Amino acid sequence: MGRKRAFPWRWRFAALVLLLAASGGMYLWWQAQHWMPLREDFPTQGVLVGGHDGPVDFRAMAATGVDFVYLEASSGESGRDALLGSNLRAVQDSGLPFGVLHAYDPCIPAERQAANFVTIVPRDASMLPPAIVLEKLAVDCADPVSEAAVESELTTFLNQIEGHTGQSAILKLGDAFQQRYGIANRIERNLWLEQAYFQPGYAGRPWRLWTANPRLSNEVTDSPVRWVVVQP
What we know:
CATH topology of the largest domain: TIM Barrel
Number of helices: 7
Strand content: 15-25%
Helix content: 25-40%
Shape: globular
Distance between the termini: 75 Å
Mean pLDDT: 90
Low-confidence stretches: none
Structural class: alpha/beta
């Protein structure tokens, strides 16, 4: 029986390269899933939670280093987060500072959206400032809405919900919304920006909150959470 042919060295080298690449990819994936900004740079860090995250144990969250919570609450003129009631009760029991979000729809008049918000969100001076999600563009509306009307209606909405909460709102401003309407330069409110792993600069001025990791793995929930930090 003839001698077996030696496995060519270049095949072994290629296999080694593939193994190292796969290992490196897995490491980078794990790092991305678990990455959060350093506490020494951002001492106050928290989470954004909505109904699609399922029930959350906020007491356990607090024990793992969560400093505050924002809850998705309302959207448009009639939208309400499915777990808002239970989340409100649970986060109040946990003792964690908390606030709520409204997803603003530029296609719907401000008064109707404000009515939805004030019906759902309790008047509680201890809550964190409300945050308004600005992502949907008016170009998607069935009836045309001018850029001037977007700013005017948004200002009306802010005035009404701020009268209810007694606090200035935070604008959770999407990149596309800012590029389209330049709201950060037109409405003077604190900003909440989003960009995974790298500090965002698309608003053109300093931000107050930053969604630093939109899919942070954690030991409390089965699904990843949105990790938010506060500018010191």
